[in-house]
C-alpha cells in the first residue's frame, strides 16, 4: 500500500513537475504616470521587474498606458494609451521582442480590452474618463491588421470589460450610467443591457411622488435644457460599476460596485442581480481564479485586496497592499497566485504584490514605475532550481 | 507486490498521457473559408452580394457554421451581415470574413476592388486675358471624374498645337514665344481639355526698378518696386514681373544667401553686395545693395542660480510680491508634485524659501496673478485621477498656503494655464480650455470653455494678452479668441474666435503675440516642440523645431514670413519685450534675438541673435545637460528655468558703441 502511495506521489510529481522543480510566472503591468510597461517575473518566492519598456510617442507628455492584454496565442501583447491628440491609441507589441509591431487610433481614453478566442477580434472600451457624461463606446478591432472594424455605443464611462469563456459575448460596465452591457461578439451589437443601480426604482418612485401640478412647465425654457444630450444623465450611477468578470463555468458575471462597496453577482440566464457581496471600500477590479473557486477584488480606497470563496460568498482574507491605491489583478492559470498592481501616490513608485491564494498572504512585492495600473498574466515557465 | 505495482503503473500512465493528448473530433486546420465570387470588382455606388462558407480539405461544405462579414474601411466599402457589399469610394480594400469557434476560429481576408470612375472633364483654368510674347505663365489644370470628384492621382499630358507660338513644360508653365494663336491641350486617359490662346506682342520696352533704400544690414527688409513701361512710357499693369537676386558675400567662405518675394521684398543673410533684378519677358532692370553685418552681438553674463537637483524642473514665473521684493515659482516634472518658491530679489543670490506639494506627478505650469497675490499651479498624474488646478495664496511667498483645489472638468490633467484679470484659462486633457472665475479663489467657478470643432483637435497652451487668448493647437495652429478685447464682441463668459493660422508640420506648441513698435506690424510668434530623438529622462537630450513668425497685421490673411531656428536645438517657451525675443531652445540654452524692424526670412542666418547662454550645472539633476524650459525678462535680468538644474538668472551687457569689436563666445 505504501508503494502505491509512492507511485501516486511519483505520478503527481510527473504531472506537476513544474511546481516541484520551480515555476516562474510572468506578468505585464503598466505604469500609467511613467509611460512604462514592466515585465514582472515571480519564481515562487521573489518578484522583480526583469524588463521595462518605454511606451508612447510624446516625450514631454504623460500619455497614460492603461489597459493591457495578451493575445490567446501569446505572441503579442496589446496596450491602450489613454491620452492622445485627443484620441487614444492601441499598440500591438511582440512578446518575443517587446517592440511595437503596429498601432491604431481608437476613441477617447481607450482602457480595458480582451481578445476573443472565438472570433479573434479585440474588444476595447473607450473610457472617456475626462469627457462629458455622454454615452461612449466599445471599439472592435481586428488585431491582425490593427483596423477598427466598428465602434458600438454603450454607456457613460465604460471601464471594465471582459469576454465570456466561450468567446462569444463581451461584457462591459459603464461607470457613470451604472449599466452592464452584453455585446454579441460575432454580430458586433448590444444584445442586452442591465441597470445596476439599486435605488433606480426608488428614484423613479420619488419622481412619481413629485407634485407636477405645482410646476409651471410653460415657463420653463426647455430649448436650453438640452434634454437629448442630458436625457440619460439625470443621475450619476450610485453603483459606479468599474469592473465585470465572467465566471469560467457558472454562467454568472461579477461586478465591482465601486460606489456602493459591493460586488454584484449577475445571473446571465436570468439577467438579474442574484447576490451582493459586502466588500472593503471602493472595490475596483475583480478577477476569478481559473478553477472558479475564488474571487479576488481590489479595494482601491482601502489599499487592500479581498479574496473570496465564491460559492460560500465569504471573504477569506483582506490583504493590505504594499501601497495605498490598489488597482488591477492578474491570476496565474494554476489559480495559485494573484498579482495585484498598486498605484502609489505622488512620487511613490508603483508596485506589484504577489498574493498566495492558499496562504492568503503577500509573498513578495516588485517595484515598478509610478501609478501601476493595467496588469495581465503572460506565461508560466519551468524554473531552474 | 512488485508485480501489482507495475500492473497499476501502466494504466495510470496511459490515463495521464491521454489527458494531454486527446485529439479533437476533426482538425480545425483542415477547414477553411471559401468565398464566392473569388474576386470582387465593383463600381462606386454598386451593391453586390458575396457568399462565404466553411469547407473541409476536400472542398465539402460544412453545415451550421456561422459566417461574419466585416469591412476594414467601412466608409469606403460596406458589408452587412448577409454579405451584401456596397462600394462608396474607389480604391483597393479588404473585407474580413470570420467563422467563429471556441477552439479555433476561421478567418479569411477578401479583396474588393472599387474601380475609379472614368475621367469626364479636363479644364485649363485662370488664364490671364493678355499673354505677352516672351513671358511665361503657370497653367492651372483641373481633372474631374464621372462622380464630379477632382482627381489629383492622374497623369496629365500637356501640348501646344504650335510650339513656335507657345510651348509648355513638365511643370505646366506656358512659355509665350511670339505673337500668334495656338491651342493648348491637356489630356488624361483620352479625355482632353483645350484652351485657345492668343499671344500678343509684348508692349513692354523698359523696366523701371526702385527701392526704399540703397543699403543696410543683414536682416533689413528692402522693398523693390518694378514698373513695366511701353515705348510711350505708359505702365503695363498686367505685365508679369519676376524678381531674382544674386550676390557676393564679404566673407569669401560664405554664400550670399537671402530671400526675395514675388512682390519685391528682399532680405540678405550675409554681408556683401547683392544685385536684385526684376524681369518681364526679355526686359529686365537691376539694382545693387550694399549689406553690412547686423552687428548686434552682446555679452550675456551668468548672475545666479537656484539649484533643483533631485527632480526635473518645469515652467516658472517671476513677480514682484506685495512686499516689494521679487519672487519666483518653479514647477517640477515627472516627480512628486512639488512647486518651489524663490526669493530672487538679488538674482546673484537666488534662495529657495518655500515649497508646496500636491497630489500630482507633474506640476507643468505655474502662473501668478497680476497683483502678485495668487499662484495657480497645474496638476497631472494625480493618484486619484482628479488633476485640475491648485490655487495658492502667495501674499507671503515664504509661507504659501493652498486656498483651494479645483478639478471640475479638469480631471484629465492640466498641462498649461494662464491667469488674466481674475480668470484662469486652464487646459483640460489636451482638448480644450476652460475659463474659470477666481474672484473668490476659495470658490472658483467655470464661466465658459473654448474648444475647436475640427476632427481630432488638440491643444497644448494658452496665453492671454489685451483681452485676446492665443491658443496653440498643434496641427490646428494658433487661434485668436476674443475674451474681452472687444474686437469680436467676446468676453470671458463668451469667448469668440476671430483669426487662425496653421502650418504643415503640426508641431505648434506655444504662442507669443508681438506688436512691432518700429513697423506697426502685428505678429504672432508660433513655437514648435519636437523631440526627433525622443526624451531620455536620465541623460542628455537634443530637441528640434523652431519659431514661426506670422504677420497677422491683416487678420484675415496671415502670412508666415520669418523663422528663428538654432541648428541642433529645438524651441520651447519664450518671452518678448520691446523688440527683443528671449527664447529657450532646450539643449541650445537661452537665445536673445533682435526682432526690431520688419521681419522676413531666416532670422538666425541674418545675425539677429544678440547673445546666448547655456545653463550647465555639474551638480544638476542630470549633470552638465542643459535643457532650458523657458525664459522671462524681469527688471533687466533674464530668468530661465532648466529641466535638469532649476532656476537661473543672467544679465545682458549694455550695447557697445557701433563698430566696437567685442569678444563673443
Automatic annotation (TrEMBL), chain A:
InterPro entries to which the protein is assigned, alphabetical: Haem_d1_sf (IPR011048), Host-pathogen_enzymatic-act (IPR051200), WD40/YVTN_repeat-like_dom_sf (IPR015943), YNCE-like_beta-prop (IPR048433)
Keywords: Signal
Keyword Signal: yes
Gene3D superfamilies attached to this UniProt entry: YVTN repeat-like/Quinoprotein amine dehydrogenase
Alphabetical list of Pfam families matching this protein: YNCE
Domain annotation YNCE-like beta-propeller: ranges: 136-366
Top-rank lineage group of the source organism: Bacteria
PANTHER family: DIHYDRO-HEME D1 DEHYDROGENASE, PROTEIN NIRF
Protein name from the UniProt record: YncE family protein
Organism: Splendidivirga corallicola
From TrEMBL, chain B:
Keyword vocabulary terms for this entry: Signal
Residue intervals of the BIG2 domain: 32-94
Pfam families to which the protein is assigned, alphabetical: Big_2
Signal peptide, first to last residue: 1-27
UniProt keyword Transferase, yes or no: no
Stored InterPro entries: Big_2 (IPR003343), Invasin/intimin_cell_adhesion (IPR008964), WD40/YVTN_repeat-like_dom_sf (IPR015943)
Protein name: Ig-like domain-containing protein
